[in-house]
Write a structure and sequence with these properties.
Blueprint (H helix, E strand, L loop, with lengths): L3 E12 L5 E13 L4 E5 L6 H9 L6 E8 L3 E4 L5 H10 L1 E4 L11 H10 L5 H14 L16 H13 L5 E5 L7 H16 L3 E6 L2 H4 L5 E6 L2 E7 L1
Parallel strand pairs: 3-8, 3-9, 6-7, 7-8
Antiparallel strand pairs: 1-2, 1-4, 4-5, 9-10
Helix pairs in contact: 3-4, 3-5, 4-5
Length: 236
């Protein structure tokens, strides 16, 4: 069984303030992700790439279609129809998400944000603290920033914190939304090294990219999108 099998995934948005106008986010998406595999998705801004990831993570509720996921906790579960309780547990213990944008409570420090991700999986706090520090160092976040509030960080620092918080769990499945946007070459190398390390440990991944050179170094399959639909694919 594959880790994830997406069948005829569709997501539309209804703009009620514009007379019920409908915008297609993605349409007729069929993808299969095997255990330990990394799929990369490319396409222009607005092509629908992020919509797929947000449907999998259930930030968006799909309009139609199925996403069959092999969960450690629930067996084969359709993420399109899973309940909120199931999704909360799956996000905490199995699926990580790296966004370009940082969303934290105002009074959570950078270090605590990473620690909390591990503690939510059941990891003892003392161990979580050590692993959090190690991950923050890996992504080059200065120790002077660890006990500060990330709303003051630069865009690159926020993205590196997002990467640390998602990857510290070493999740079964990792979603990456432009994981190298706003990063310098040294930071990109740190991301690549951690992705390859997670792959060796069995993490399956799906990511969207504009940096094609970076993507081709880490993915196993590439798919391109246009106007909400998959238009091509190849083995990397």
């Amino acid at each position: 069984m594959p880790l994830l099998n997406i069948e005829q995934l569709n997501k539309s948005f209804h703009l009620h303030q514009f007379g019920g106008k409908q915008i297609v986010g993605c349409s007729g998406i069929n993808l299969t992700l095997d255990h330990g595999e990394f799929i990369g998705i490319t396409g222009k801004s607005g092509a629908g790439k992020s919509t797929i990831l947000k449907c999998i993570y259930r930030t968006y509720i799909p309009t139609s279609g199925s996403m069959y996921y092999e969960s450690d906790s629930y067996g084969t579960i359709d993420l399109a129809r899973a309940g909120e309780r199931e999704m909360i547990e799956i996000r905490q213990k199995e699926i990580g998400y790296v966004s370009q944008f940082l969303k934290l409570l105002p009074r959570v420090t950078a270090q605590d944000a990473v620690i909390q991700e591990l503690v939510a999986t059941g990891c003892p706090k003392e161990r979580a603290e050590g692993e959090a520090r190690s991950m923050l160092r890996h992504f080059g976040l200065a120790e002077s920033l660890w006990d500060t509030y990330p709303n003051t960080f630069s865009g690159g620092e926020k993205l590196r914190l997002n990467l640390a918080a998602a990857m510290v769990k070493r999740p079964k499945f990792l979603l990456l939304d432009e994981p190298t946007a706003s990063l310098d070459n040294g930071s990109k190398e740190a991301v690549r090294d951690m992705i390859l390390d997670l792959k060796r440990q069995g993490t399956s991944m799906m990511g969207i990219f504009h940096d094609l050179e970076f993507m081709e170094k880490v993915v196993d399959q590439e798919f391109s999108m246009q106007s909400g639909s998959i238009t091509g694919g190849r083995t990397a």
